[in-house]
Amino acid sequence: MKAAVIVFPGSNCDRDVAVALQASMGAKPLMVWHRDTQLPDLDLIVVPGGFSYGDYLRCGAMAAHSPIMREVKAKADQGTRVLGICNGFQILTETGLLPGVLMRNKDLKFICKDVHLRVESDQTDFCRQYQAGQTVRFPIAHAEGNYFADPETFKAMEGNGQIAFRYCSSLGEVTDGANPNGSLSNVAGVYNARHNVLGLMPHPERLAEDLLGGSDGKAMFDSLVEALS
Ligand SMILES: NC(=O)CC[C@H](N)C(=O)O
């Protein structure tokens, strides 16, 4: 599998995801600066977490207009797999590659803690090594993770299996109490209509080996390697 990680001024999870990818792929991903305009042939593009452009205007708004994002969009339109984590998810909604928006957390605070997620679908290249309904633990660290889509869009997304993860209790119950940021229907991650683009607020790369305190995130990178190698 050939993978690239996009690096923006203010990215801070680019190296974390590169380490997680290398552990699953057995090779280093290409690190691509946001000013670049071309990407080689790739199986996977990762848009990582952080604070691109200092979160000015709103998270992801400026990064979405970086030169490289035009190329990321073209590749995604051709079917290349794109994974956006946290700030990456925000950038992908801002570019229109994913439906919906990410607003300020309901309590207007930055939240940094581990959460539980219910895997909603195991039928994609990103999640085949999970099981639908499985509960996993991933960290979150964000101020703008409050997902929203208009009712018509959301209904279509649900009908098309585009909900990837929902916040839940440690027992797998999707309740208001388990929703850290006010997201519509506890949504933590979504796919585009073709399921080749995934964005999620929680960080799989931050719990991808036991040394980090857990490895629930590893199956996402292993799934991609299995599907794309
Ligand atoms: N960890 C991240 O990627 C954070 C994303 C963004 N800066 C926010 O605070 O919402």
- Number of separate helices: 5
Overall mean confidence score, pLDDT: 97
The ligands found in this model are:
glutamine
Q: Which structural class do the helices and strands define? A: alpha/beta
Low-confidence stretches: none
Query: What is the CATH class name?
Result: Alpha Beta
Strand content: 15-25%
Gross geometry: globular
Can you tell me the CATH topology? Rossmann fold
- In the sheet with the most strands, the strands line up as 2-1-3-4-11-10-9-6-7
CATH superfamily: Class I glutamine amidotransferase (GATase) domain
Query: End-to-end span in angstroms?
Result: 5 Å
Q: Give the total of domains.
A: 1
Which value, in Å, is the CA radius of gyration?
Answer: 16 Å
Helix content: 10-25%
Biggest sheet record: 9 strands, mixed
Total beta strand runs: 11
Describe the fold and architecture.
The protein has helices at residues 14-25, 67-78, 87-95, 151-159, 218-228; strands spanning 3-7, 30-33, 44-47, 81-85, 101-103, 111-119, 135-142, 146-148, 163-168, 187-191, 197-200. It has a nine-stranded mixed β-sheet, with helices on both faces. It has a two-stranded antiparallel ribbon with strand order 5-8. The radius of gyration is 16 Å and the shape is globular. With 229 residues, it is an alpha/beta fold. Strand 3 (44-47), helix 2 (67-78) and strand 4 form a beta-alpha-beta unit. Helix 1 packs across helix 5 (218-228). The protein is 23% helix and 24% strand. The chain has a single domain, classed as Rossmann fold, CATH 3.40.50. The protein contains five helices and eleven strands. The structure holds glutamine (GLN). Glutamine binds next to strand 7.
